[in-house]
């Protein structure tokens, strides 16, 4: 395979929301789910989020568990808009940060982030966004990354689903309902027929305190 194995991790309400309308997301799932999520990070060579998640959540994307290695942090950020004061930029010298951006992204921003230790990786970009297939080839062939954990947000997750690049889903589901004004875990897929829906096969269900952890693999329904 010319790309890493990709796992999509979702932490949502019962109705598939990852945050309130105002962006508040702490905490949808319980501590047991969050701990299992951190273990998932340690089990993958790289972890990936989009520009909006990096901006809104200002995550560290580390395991925060003593004795476990942190994954390489990967950001899809076409404009190279990652803030120099963000947790990711501030820790790039300690835990690697790879940032995929458009080839026409602002040179000064790219140079500033590069000076902080962020590795900039310009790739093809069009109206649909950054070229995910090209990015995954770079991760596998140039960076040697075999496994990638995709953590969000919804727009980036939809891009990977549309590209047929989600091999596994780890879904942590909390027993709460947020409603239609909440933020979706998967963005628009623009399907017109039910036969076009993307199929996954559930292989396990586990109770984590009040939450459920469901594991799915790509395949026929």
Can you put this structure into words, describing what you see?
The chain is an alpha/beta fold. Helices cover 24% and strands 30% of the residues. It is built from 6 helices and 13 strands. The strands form 3 sheets. It has a 9-stranded mixed beta sheet, with helices on both faces. Strand 7 (125-126) and strand 8 form a beta hairpin. The mean pLDDT is 92.
Task: Offer a concise description of the structure.
This protein has 221 residues and is of the alpha/beta class. The chain is 24% helix and 30% strand.
Number of helices: 6
Order of helices and strands: EEHEHEHEHEEEHEHEEEE
* Low-pLDDT sequence parts: none
In quaternary terms, these chains amount to single chain
Distance between the termini: 23 Å
Question: What is the alpha-carbon Rg in Å?
Answer: 17 Å
Set down the secondary structure blueprint:
Elements lengths: L4 E8 L4 E3 L11 H12 L3 E5 H7 L14 E5 L10 H4 L6 E6 L4 H9 L3 E5 L1 E2 L2 E2 L1 H11 L4 E6 L1 H9 L5 E6 L9 E2 L15 E9 L2 E8 L3
Parallel strand pairs: 1-9, 1-10, 3-4, 3-9, 4-5, 5-6
Antiparallel strand pairs: 2-11, 7-8, 10-13, 12-13
């Amino acid at each position: 395979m010319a790309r890493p194995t990709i796992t999509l991790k979702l932490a949502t309400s019962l109705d598939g929301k990852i945050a309130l309308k105002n962006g508040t997301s702490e905490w949808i799932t319980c501590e047991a789910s969050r701990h299992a999520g951190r273990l998932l990070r340690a089990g993958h060579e790289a972890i990936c989020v989009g520009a909006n998640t990096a901006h809104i959540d200002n995550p560290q994307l580390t395991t925060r568990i003593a004795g476990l290695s942190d994954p390489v942090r990967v950001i899809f950020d076409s404009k190279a808009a990652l803030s120099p004061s963000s947790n990711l930029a501030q820790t790039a010298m300690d835990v690697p940060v790879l940032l995929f951006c458009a080839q026409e992204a602002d040179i000064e921003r790219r140079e500033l982030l590069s000076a902080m230790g962020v590795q900039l990786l310009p790739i093809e970009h069009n109206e649909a966004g950054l070229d995910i297939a090209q990015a995954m080839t770079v991760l596998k062939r140039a960076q040697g990354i075999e496994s990638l954990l995709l953590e969000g947000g919804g727009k980036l997750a939809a891009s990977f689903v549309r590209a047929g690049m989600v091999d596994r889903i780890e879904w942590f589901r909390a027993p709460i309902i947020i409603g239609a004004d909440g933020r979706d875990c998967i963005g628009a897929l623009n399907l017109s027929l039910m036969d076009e829906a993307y199929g996954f096969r559930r292989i396990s269900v586990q109770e984590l305190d009040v939450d459920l952890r469901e594991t799915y693999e790509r395949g026929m329904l």
